Predict the structure.
Amino acid sequence: MFGKLVAHSMDSMINVFLKTRGMALVNSRIARYGEVTDLRKEGPCYHARVRLLGHGSDLEVTMKGLEMDEGCTVARLGEFSASEPWLEHLLEDHANGRRIPIPEGARPALRPFAKYV
């Protein structure tokens, strides 16, 4: 029971980070295509609402799993699913398992969460 409480508390803290710095970081990388309007963690999954340029409605994207090295220098993305098959296929081909360098300025804020992502 205590373990579940700790996991829930860490998810809550991670969600605060995601709503502020996490969304800004992701949006800086995808600005050419659109923006993330909501980002949250539930257990091992990360859920995003994405508004793509030229697309009439928001899309839902889920990533199951995320790994981060101890120094928070690289994140390895998990497996993606999406509300639109074409987007899911695109993410499977180009994002599943991809290693993403973490900007140096974001590393100090991520270190407390590294083992909980």
